Amino acid sequence: MGRGEVSAVDTEVLRGLRHAASVGPDQALADWLATGLAGDPTRSSTTGWTAHGRPATLARALATTLTSVAAERFDTALPLDGAELLGRRARLSAIDPEGAHGPDARLLRAADGWWSLNLARPSDVELVPALVEDQVDAAWTDVEGWSARLPAQAVVDRATMLGLPASRLGETPVPAEPWRTSSAPASTSSTSLRVVNLGSLWAAPLAAHLLGRLGAEVVHVESTTRPDASRWGSPAFYDELRVGAEVRSIDVTTTSGRAALHALVSSADVVVEASRPRALEGLGVGPGQVMPDGRARTWLQITGHGPEQPHRVGFGDDAAVAGGLVVVDRDGLPGFYGDAVADPLTGLVGALAVAANHDQQRQTVMQASLAWSAATARAAGDVSG
Q1: What is the spatial distance between Cα 178 and Cα 208, in angstroms, rounded to a whole number?
Q2: Which residues lie below 8 Å from residue 350, measured CB to CB, with a gap of 6+?
Q3: Do residues 374 and 19 make contact, with C-beta atoms less than 8 angstroms apart?
Q4: Count of alpha carbons within 13 Å of 335, Cβ hemisphere only?
Q5: Contact, 377 vs 325, CB < 8 A?
Q6: How many CA atoms lie within 13 A of 138 on its CB side?
Q7: What are the beta bridge partners of residue 248?
Q8: What's phi and psi for 219, nearest 5 deg?
Q9: Which of 240, 278, 253, 248 is nearest to 265 (CA)?
Q10: How is the chain split among helix, strand and coil, in percent rounded to 5?
Q11: Pick from 1, 9, 24: which is nearest to 73 by CA?
Q12: Going residue by residue through the chain (385 aa), what tens digit of pLDDT does each one get?
């Protein structure tokens, strides 16, 4: 099977996924209410809002399909409510549903539409003067004034060039499938199921966690110099995603640390990562440096905007906007749709893709994207109230 082709397994799984996602408007609303994020949008006392997309319905379809795969391929019962999962981080972190989206993300006007910027990291804030090409007094005020004069695509292009997480509303086309698969026979089979997760925050750890619930041994890797920000941002959620797993801290700035990391990744039957290619390659653990060993292995690559834009930064809120997931009020103003919904959707997508396709006789590369997941949910229809 070549790159980008759909396997027989994928075809059957995706058929079931599409069937599960085909629900009426009343059920779609019930799915969203089940997330517990009703304040965004449905807690409002007003009427006339429209939520573009059905992420909760898609999440439930993904969870239902994953539960079936768990029973058929792993002989494991996996009780899982995808809608509940979308609101899980907000509940564990005691976040008000009205502000469930990241506090550092905003939807902003451009001259011809809307775009999203996420100043989640201190380095992002430091880049604002370069973004607007001027001195800055108040970051958000200056960005708003700057972008209002320019086309949304030009704004996003400049932000992306600087490495800022930004997106134009609805820019991502609906993918033919929510993931891509490429596979080839392995020269050495595997007999275990060890998952090594190199990703942080939500999507990658969630995918690894769900695979652990199928019986896999899971090892989460963190750099001693750059630990997962969820440790202090959402500590209860961080802990929940690592129940029953090993967390291994490695100093990748040392030769011995990089050697230990390479040995660990080489021992994996499944690798989950959400890094830009040059970061892994610099550590000697990119797929091009590990997969040539010929060992049967599934490699899940999670990106913000797909492999065609491997160096583009994307987080759950801004990637959701790229896919078109927004809530529009009665005045036509868009707002964020829940809590970084592209993240848990992609974690579910990744876990399902691996669970359905992992083969102990083959080398398989799976590609998932936050923006693809969001666009897939957007294509499912609207939810109104």
Answers
A1: 18
A2: 179, 203, 204, 206, 207, 272, 300, 302, 366, 368
A3: no
A4: 21
A5: yes
A6: 4
A7: 221
A8: -125, 120
A9: 248
A10: 45, 20, 40
A11: 9
A12: 444 444 556 666 677 667 656 788 889 999 998 998 865 444 444 456 888 999 999 999 999 999 999 999 999 999 999 999 999 998 887 665 555 555 689 999 999 999 999 998 889 999 999 999 999 999 999 999 999 999 999 999 999 999 999 999 999 999 988 999 999 999 999 989 999 999 999 999 999 999 999 999 999 999 998 888 888 888 999 999 999 999 999 999 999 999 999 999 999 999 999 988 888 999 999 999 999 999 999 999 999 999 999 889 999 999 999 999 999 988 889 999 888 999 999 999 999 999 999 999 999 999 999 999 999 999 988 888 6
User: 195: buried, middle or exposed (CB in 10 Å: 19+, 13-18, 0-12)?
Assistant: buried
Task: Give yes or no for a contact between 263 and 290, defined as CB atoms under 8 angstroms apart.
Answer: no
Query: Which residue, chain included where needed, has tokens 């078109």?
Result: 324
> Per-residue DSSP letters for 5-68?
B--HHHHHHHHHHHHHH---HHHHHHHHHTTT-TTTTTT-S----EEES-HHHHHHHHHHHHHH
Start-to-end C-alpha separation, the chain:
45
Measured at the alpha carbon of residue 83, what is the angle toward residues 209 and 227, in degrees to the nearest 5? Answer: 35
User: Token match 């004034």: residue?
Assistant: 145
Tokens 């910027």 identify what position? 117
Query: Is the full-model pTM beyond 0.90?
Result: yes
In the numeric block, the tokens 């110099």 are attached to 225
Residue 245, Cα to own-chain centre: how many angstroms?
Answer: 20
Judging by DSSP bridges, how do beta strands 382-384 and 217-223 pair with one another? unpaired
Q: Which amino acid is at 85?
A: L
- Tell the residue number behind the tokens 């604002």, with chain if given: 128
The answer to whether residues 377 and 53 touch, using CB atoms and an 8 Å cutoff, is yes
- Tokens in use for 6? 């759909």
Reduce the secondary structure of 318-379 to three states and give it as a string: HHHHHCCCEEECCCCCEEECCCCCHHHHHHHHHHHHHHHHCCCCEEEEEEEEHHHHHHHHHC
Cis, bond preceding 41 (omega within 30 deg of 0): yes
